[in-house]
Structures are given as C-alpha cells and as structure tokens.
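If you are new to this repository, start here. Below is one unmodified record pulled from the training split, so you can see the exact layout before writing a loader.
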Amino acid sequence: MLYRKSLLSIVAVASLTSSCRLFRPVNPNPSTDVRPSTEVRPADSVATVEAVEPSALTTDPRRLNDANIAAIVLASNNTDMSYARLVPSRAERTDVKEFARRMLTDHASINGLITELTTQLDMTPEDNVVSLDLRDESAAKRDKMRELSGYAFDSTYIENEVSYHRKFLYSIDNVLEPRVRNDQLKSLLTNIRPAIAAHLAHAEQVRANVLTRK
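And here is the target side for that same chain:
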C-alpha cells in the first residue's frame, strides 16, 4: 500500500552517520542526505506551499533562535498527534483510522530525532509565541472535534489534516529553515520535509475519498 511504510524508513539514515553516544547526527553532506522512501512521489518531495491560512505555524517571527525552532517542531508534532488520538473513538472510516495511526507513529519518530539531537547539542528547546500559540490553537480544534462522530468527524478531521500539513510545510520552508543556524538541525529539517509532504499527499487522498464517500 502506498502509505504503509513508517517514517522510520524515511529518516532512519539520519541516525547512522556518527558514533555519538546519544545521537548520530544527520550528515549535512548533500551526497549522503536522507532520501524519501518510495511512498513519497517525486512531486510531493519537492512540493511548494504557496498560500496557507493564517496560523501560529505561518507567522514570521524575526528573532527565533535554534532552541525556539526545536520547540516549534516538537509542538507541531505534538499538535498533530493530539488530533490523531481523537480518531479511534470517533471515526467510522478505516482509511481515516489508518491515517491517524500513521500520524502517531511518524510524528512521534520526528520528535524522537529532535529530542536526541537537542540532547547531543546540549540544547534545551525554548517555548516561544509560536509554540505556545500552536498549543492554544490545537486545543480549540480538539474541543470542536470532540463534539463530532462518524462522517462529521471524519470529514472535519481529515480537512484539518490537509490544512495542518500545508502549514507545517510552509513553516519549514519560510520560517524555520531560513532562520536555523545549527547545521545538524537544518539538515534534520531538510530530511523530514519529504515525510511531511507525503503526509499532505496522503491526507489529500483520504479527504477526496471521504468527500465522495468512496
């Protein structure tokens, strides 16, 4: 199945490039960068996001430091996992449930990589206006989705997933990567981008099926 593979197969190479006791950092050499797995279509891995709805993820703070950026990535992944945890008790469609399971696995894996890297760098992620706003934003959306079930939940959840992943890609391209200074953190952002693009493609496919009730 197109989307069956875990993010672990996409980013695992990032953990094999050094002998550090806690984290093997991503190799910044372009010739050895992690490549997306076969589940990421070429168009997805290089996709650009030209316009998204305003959100904490799409703001453009000028004074972000690397510790702030790490906190934003962690908060972004935690946000999507919080949505996915609502699915088992409210969704009716198998494809929606499978998508949510993938989000829990993949975003937890990304957070694991971020945590290992910040440990290796002796960097403590620092909350900031973006990471804190993400939490408030996700809490409001979860409150809305908790009131839904069946088709109403499925359609609302997957529409939100499309919007969320568009914003996450926009954030990586226009907010995070342009401001990150540490080479290993920059490489990690570069390496996870194809996975986020694949999530967006998957969400768009599921949304199309939900809306046509296939």
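Two things worth knowing about this chain: DSSP finds eight helices and no strands in the chain. The mean pLDDT is 79.
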